[in-house]
Give the backbone structure.
Amino acid sequence: MAEAVFHAPKRKRRVYESYEAPLPLPFTQYQGKTEFRPFQAELVHNYVIVRHTEDMEQLYGKGYFGKGTLSRSRPNFTISDPKMAAKWKDLKTNMPIITSEKYRRGLEWASEHLRRQGLDESAVQSALQDLSQPLEHPWTESHPELQRCEEPKAATARREAPATKNGDPIQDSQTPNSLAGSREAVPATPAPGLSPAGKASSPLASLHPSSEYVLVEEAWGDVCKGQEIPGEDLAPMKRLTCRRNPYRILEYLQLSLEEAFFLVYALGCLSIYHEKKPLTILNLWKVFTSVQPTFRTTYMAYHYFRSKGWVPKVGLKYGTDLLLYRKGPPFYHASYSVIIEMVDDERFEGALRRPLSWKSLAALSRVSINVSKELMLCYLIRPSAMSDTDMDSPECMKRIRVQEVILSRWVSSRERSDQDDL
């Protein structure tokens, strides 16, 4: 058997991120002491979801665990219009900036959701009218162009933005948790949390305070109805109005079962809850195995490669089990496409997850070469004396050995040219 040659990973041309510590260890400062605070996740419909914004940033930024539910990789989804954000780039804010048309579309979605809740038309219109009232903008003094004309006196009863004890308005990143559900509002998605009275009782909005408010670009004439500004044409003039987001779309971090169990078992920095109850390591091992019958095999390989310093990701798009990245997907292309099998230590056989023929093996090899990757077979060798009962605990991994085989396609023309050179 020829010895495998290690090839340097192929670095990406454009890198927009800085490399951080590879493993997330969450410590917080409390009363002058450093305390360990585990991340929290939930098991929802056989998926592991992380909802808290800080936990999402830490898990993905310091190890590239999981992916955003609405993004390709890093959870950075926003409803902000790119053209509007570029137009108002001088305004330093994390709040989404959208057009008035997009805001009206959100109101339509909110009204349809309220009707599906069984509210009559008068209650729906009352809730939407209260929801769409303009708010006092936190940056009015520093940006007078945002609030050039005063609101009509009929709107003096509008809801103002929350204020601190000193009377200063709170920025969007400082919105307190009590705001979620304290007013009649429409929830982020058609999900439980909206009572028949139209009040949002779900605590999810408190985890994403920046989604509570949006800046809507509107014509001055639409906002300053009934008021006249002498010598000025209102048609082409725009301003930003702070409003509550009528239909919030929240993004979460979704962890694969292997990633979630590695954070719980190997690092001990994640707690997974199901119906508000924490799950133990043995419970997770059994639940994940019932959800995904091949979980034990794939997790052992995931644990092995993570321990070696690789960042494994799902290799479904290339027809394999795992893709191995150096540092992380933002910096390098995947180096290996991995197929995982568990075999017996005596006969090197077993119930193969994927019986390969010469045709399928050649196809996988060709696909891997075309995308500048190497095809690797990862064999997990279990003792013949190990029973299925021994596999009911993750401690069985201590008795498993790993053997890696890298496949390379033999090219006859290249072989002939090499012999001619000799």
The two ends are 22 Å apart (CA to CA). The chain is about 25% helix and 20% strand. Residues 100-116 form the longest helix (17 residues). Residues 147-209, 226-235 have pLDDT under 50 and may be disordered.
